[in-house]
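Handover notes (outgoing to incoming on-call)

Open items:
1. Zinc ribbon domain-containing protein: sequence verified, structure written out, both below. Nothing else pending on this one.
2. Nothing else urgent.
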Amino acid sequence: MTRPDSPAFNAPHRLLCRGKGWQAVFSCGLCGKEYAVCVPQADQPEQALTLAAAEAKLHFNWCRHCGAWVCDEHFNENRGLCTRCAPRICAACGAGVPAGDQFCTVCGAVQFEPSRHP
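Zinc ribbon domain-containing protein structure tokens:
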């Protein structure tokens, strides 16, 4: 998901005090889909946010064009960009391609380009 050369994780978030611990809720920069992380072992809010961000970062992707942190549904894995910067469009017929589909549902063309993945 996250590339090693990505910048500090700064997805939109909120930090909530939950009795004996903290809960950080991070959201996709495009759709707002949320990912929550509970951090019971942190004493201070800054520590809780640092620990939660380390876990949450694994569930988001960084767009190297606009800098947004987005969920898998809004990340074009072939281009390494969010779907706002690089919509998933079949190169063969121009139809939209849903996330995770290996073949175009209109023309059947292969969509996954393994040579672009590290």
